[in-house]
Amino acid sequence: MSMLQEFKEFAMRGNVVDMAVGIVIGAAFGKIVTSLVSDVIMPPIGWLTGGIDFSAMKWVIKPADDSNPAHKVAEVAINYGSFVNSIIAFLIVAFAIFILVKIINRFYTKAAAATPADVVLLTEIRDLLKSKQ
Q1: What residues does 73 pair with on adjacent strands?
Q2: Coil, strand or helix: which one is 53?
Q3: Residue 14 scores a pLDDT above 70
């Protein structure tokens, strides 16, 4: 079997295609959640905290030096506000995925809980036969 033929068989397996679809949908869902966090959730959080912009928070280790135009020195800082924003975004994404999985599991449980009529009938027959012994 040639290498090209093996690769074709590998790429056409159901798991690989399912994974690719999941990655594409996950990326699209990530963009939706990012917009939800930055455009819908963070403004009220900023308002509740008195207009604090977390992304602007930083600890300056060495300030920028613009005194000599020929030799500018950039600011050296730890941008912990961006890290705080990332943590908040992660928590919101994790919570959104948790709720989504919970809803999907609820529908799956309801669909799986319905026992077919023939199985119910066979169970009743089994129980009747056990009671006659």
Answers
A1: 65
A2: coil
A3: no
Residue 126 confidence (pLDDT): 92
The rounded distance, in Å, linking the Cα atoms of 102 and 21 is 21
Rounded alpha-carbon distances, angstroms, from residue 7 to 16, 22, 55, 59, 88: 11, 21, 45, 51, 41
DSSP code at position 13: S
Amino acid at 101: V
Q: Which long-range contacts (CB under 8 A, 24 or more apart) does 36-40 make?
A: 36/92, 36/96, 37/88, 37/89, 37/92, 37/93, 38/89
Q: pLDDT, tens digit, for every residue of 35-87?
A: 877 788 778 877 887 877 777 889 999 998 888 777 888 889 999 988 888 88
What does DSSP assign to residue 75?
-
What is the pTM for the complete model shown?
Answer: 0.50
> Which of 81, 25, 94, 16 minimizes the C-alpha distance to 55?
81
pLDDT above 80 for 103: yes
Is residue 17 classed exposed, middle or buried when 0-12, 13-18 and 19+ CB atoms within 10 A define those classes? exposed
